[in-house]
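Board work, copied verbatim: Aminoacetone oxidase family FAD-binding enzyme
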Amino acid sequence: MIYDAIVIGAGAAALFFGALNKDKLNILMLERNDRVGKKLLTTGNGRCNYTNTKLNENPYNDKDFTLYMIEKYGYEAIKNKFQVMGIYPYIEEDRVYPMSLQASSVLDVLRYENERNNVNIKTDVFVKSFHKDGDIFLIKDQNANIYKSKSLVIACGGAAMPKFGSDANLYKQIKELGISVIDTKPALVPYECDYKYLKHLDGLRVKAKLSLKKAGKIIKDDVDDVLFTKYGLSGPTVFQLSRYISGKESAYKFSVDFFYTFNEDELFSSLSDRRKDIGYKSLDDFFIGLIHKRLIIPVLDRLGLVKETNAKNLSDKDLHKIINILKDFELDIIKNKGYGIGQISLGGVATKEINAKTMESKKINGLYFIGEVIDIDGPCGGYNLSFAWLSAMAAYDDIKLRCKA
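↓ predict structure ↓
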């Protein structure tokens, strides 16, 4: 049998591609795991933040590449496609979740639509090789079975979650076709840091401004929750900034601004009043009510004063030093926590190799790439899943036209 399209992978992008198949194209999906969509169940902390109301602002690393898809489809198309499948939106700020707040709901409806659309899904199939012979693609699995199709869609993911099959295993074969692939690295990932009080701060979560610094200069900053762990820093801000770390990771620092809503003059005035009002207290009591208790020892350590010091003896210079500590609390970065911890991977098939309107290879007719296998990434908040849906729509629409021609 020669299929209209074979899809390698059965993750988010692939399943959405199959869910679009109202035209009942003859589609075969090959998945190496025993179940489909395993990684999808982990998204949004198990709630599946499947898109974002601000998607049309195009926050991706290659805005020129994603512009056409966003203008043609965008947030409304994604919302409507899911709504007709039974996924109604629940919106927190700009993040969109299923009303059930369960990632399993999204996976269940995608599986249902694939079955309804007669998509043939085979699990436990590991693709060993693929090539094009004339107008037909030949795909060989681990048991030497050969599958044939007119179009081939690569939706195998990136390198972020090896245990779920996203381990970049097909990139070597893609390169052998003469297609450029950008080296991958983990992103939206926690970082190990070098700081002696990390165990003391483990579990502390604060809303703050986190800045990424290199050679004393701020590269990027973000305001959201910062989570201190026994190994370093995690949380939404760290995930966002991880996309901007390249090369030698130890050349970077994180800086936490615990009082980002105050400028230095406002904070100095507040500390001066505090010194006047409760200057009779020792420093370990002076900070209670101002900062989290677990921050007191680290702040005193950086201040170079013992906790028994009387607050009234703080000089204006000391107050300015406290301000600098609270608004520029630096931690040295050691390394990221690696694949399997990071939510996505950067890198993948170079966008210059792909038609931005159709997701088709510019070098090989009928070969398509969708989802995380492409060198496109966005911030936290449903943007990376949104790209999976957008690229699947673009590829499906083109393959549908090809089949009807």
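The chain has a mean pLDDT of 93.
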